[in-house]
Amino acid sequence: MFTIEGSVLKIRKNLERKKMKLIKSLLIVTLLTVTFASAEEADKQSETKDLSGVAAIVNGEKIGMEKVDSLAEMTLSRYPKQMRESQATKIKKRVLDTIIFGELVSQKAEEMGISVSDERCEKEVKDMISSKDITLEQYKKMIKDAGKDYGELLDQVRRSLEFEKIINKLSSDDVKVSDKDVKEYFDSNKEKLASPKQVKASHILIKTESKEDQQAAKEKAEELLKKINDGGDFAAIAKENSDCPSSERGGDLGFFSRGRMVGAFEDAAFNLEVGEVSDVVKTKFGYHIILVTDKKEAKEAVFEDQKEKIREQLVNQKMGKAADKIRENMMQAATIRYSDVFKPEEKEAKKQSEGTELKIEE
């Protein structure tokens, strides 16, 4: 079932897979780590008059409590009811810090003459929902019907794209990766980069949920195996009878290497030839019938095949470090005044004065 919450999680996963995953996730899915120069600065940033409805003021720009409450509620709604009250303040603070950094990104982008159009943001959203059979207009309607704000999502995307541009402008020389760097990484990680032996298999699972139903489950599996050995279509029988979600794909599990499946299942699969069907195999999940449909032999890593992937990985690592540095500089240069609700505790201010990193925990 397609849900707004599920699609947002999917969006986050898709963003992480992209080349800029270490950067975009800073705004959308990670907590902010804030380091202040001293307790005096922390006190200065925390001082504010009791302004009704204002959560914080960032370089003179007000952030409304209503916005914080609204976004926090989306997160809290996924918590069990008995946990919501105890987590509310912590979640609101996390949300506020995310909004604050987004505001700083917006201000920095304006200062540097950086802009991101609505069209570019919507293209990003389209890319993020491309795996679902749904149009952008349908997605907008679903968000509206669920009482969510599409504009908030678009703003998050805009801030992340702006931050990407800021990093590209400020750290282009710091993120270069040489051919020597790539080769050294390859030579040090050949074993990790090698491809292990893999098999592609389909299976039928008859679950056992108690000791009492084991015999019945075994008998059903043996009956299905006889049908298959008599010429029955494995995929059709799997779709009709298997208790595994893979039944929708005719039991197809795709390729997997050793260490991915439970022992008995794995041993049976790797000992079969392509096109061969196993006997009934018992695991803690129940009784399986396994069909091996393809195999890939182990393969040593080849530099030419891996070099661009390695280069991208090393660039991402450097971009992540550059992003951390730029983020820290932006936070330290900002004047941030919290409302009384979100003032840092005295002990946190003391940690800051000692140069300790203040990390807002989940």
UniProtKB/TrEMBL annotation:
PROSITE patterns linked: PPIC_PPIASE_2 (PS50198)
EC top class, as a word: isomerase
MF (Gene Ontology): peptidyl-prolyl cis-trans isomerase activity
Keywords from the named record: Isomerase, Rotamase, Signal
Signal sequence residues: 1-39
Keyword Amino-acid biosynthesis on entry: no
Keyword S-adenosyl-L-methionine in annotation: no
SUPFAM superfamilies: FKBP-like, Triger factor/SurA peptide-binding domain-like
EC identifiers of the protein: 5.2.1.8
Transmembrane segments: none
PpiC domain location: 196-294
Protein name: Foldase protein PrsA
Source species of the chain: Sedimentisphaera cyanobacteriorum
